[in-house]
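Q: My collaborator sent me two sequences in one message, no labels, and asked for predicted structures for both. Can we handle them in order? The first one she listed is below.
A: Yes, handling them in the order given. First sequence, followed by its structure tokens:
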Amino acid sequence: MRVLIVEDEPKTAAYIKKGLTEHAFVVDVAGNGLDGLHLATTGTYDLVLLDVMLPGADGWTVLQALRQQRDTPVFFISARDEVADRVKGLELGADDYLVKPFAFSELLARIRTILRRGAAKVDPVVQIADLRIDVVRRRVSRAGQRVELTAKEYALLDYFVRHAGEVVSRTLIAEHVWDMHFDSDTNVVDVAVRRLRAKLDDPFEQKLIHTVRGVGYLFEARGGAEGDSGSGEWG
């Protein structure tokens, strides 16, 4: 899941980003309303965490402009604790409103509730060949066997599934799963894919993760086992 934080207080933004990253979210941060609106309308996010008092454009303005273009869930986090402010935020189309200071555990629980609502609009279970992903509970299984994944492995699988049938480069994977610029001298992506394969592919005849030499990876179920043995490389 990818989250945008629009917050002008660096310590607050860093605190939230750290907590969400530890729970397998990929997080971008904007320090003012104008930058936040630009990212929210040009990027792809599952949720926007939006402060009210922002330089450039306040949260009310950002939400109104965003709602004219997209229906991305928006969660207000603000020091403004008047009932009128909370009511205004919800009436403008926000999905929730949390007053600062707050416990991260409560923020995380509310975020998951919002995302479950969104998952309910789509299919909460993703099925590819014998791979089954319960999106709400984040449970993964193949051929009926439970596959235990770390938070980062799940984030990597989630990215692959969202782009199933597409060849994705290491640069794109690093950007969306690790929120980092890919350094060709590092093998963080290849190591992570290898670990995911060990759990998701190696114990099963049909391979889902395929290496495209010199480009990146392809996630797809192919008919039969032909060409899917070994590391799933082709090119």
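Q: And the one she listed second?
A: Here it is, processed independently of the first:
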Amino acid sequence: MVRIAIAGGSGEVAREVIDALVASKKHEIIILSRNGPGLSNPHNLEWRQVDYEAIGSLTQALDDIHTVLSFVQLLRDPENKAQKNLIDAAIRAGVTRFAPSEWGSRAAGSTMPWWAGKDDVKVYLKQVNANAKVLEYTLFQPGLFLNYLATPHKTSDHLTPLNTFVDFHSRRAIVVDEYDAIMTFTTVQDMAAVVAKAVGFEGPWPEVGGIRGSRVTVSQLVEIGKRVRGGPFSLDTVKLEDLEAGRLTATWTLEAQHHSVSGDEAEKLLKAVLVGTLLSSAKGYWDVSDEWNQLLPDHQFAKIDQFLEKAWTGKP
């Protein structure tokens, strides 16, 4: 049994992982929260209220913890102070393992500024371990959640359906001229199951922890869409240089938005997310590695064709 602290445990991806951990019946789970348990605590888990500005109290909250899984919302963590304080507190408390708030692409770079904090935290983790390993960590990177290709239909318990630049519902896609990007798609359920197994993994954690459900090119994905949806897809082609200049020349943009962002901020973010996802795909940032596939060879991942056929059968 491992004692696990979940930072940002009220988030959607965190709740998917919590469900998988609870289902394993192998670990003790503690939720770290700024606000306490609130109204929803279906598993009756222990909650510890924390102040991410106060390293002393954070250290105390982690005193008996073996593994910390972070789902800190990057948009609400200016300068990544909360995660860096969490890392410092974990080291002081003698935590063995740490997973930062990744849960997506293998990099962000300048293409996805809303996720730039991920790269900053990676650098910080390397710095704290520069002279000697004081904290074992892994970067859980499942690529894009396959569930999003079923939008607007909900295919998991907690994840909000969000559309992408390949829109199965409206049978359309935006492609980058001269770039047939390679994408990794993993269901949020598979990601959560792998994390639950990784927590109990007896060997050392790999620093880069790729989780690869399916690896396809955008053109292959469009072909799957044609078969699954029973008809052609309309294609908008955009140029890399326009995207790099922040220009979106496609005839449509993203529509579904996350509940944590609203109003004018949401409209700006939707355009930025679409431009950034297209750019990052062209640069190969969604082609993640498969370290956890190799370390957990018995896990059977959902196949992209079968998942999408089931999600769209009988749907208009």
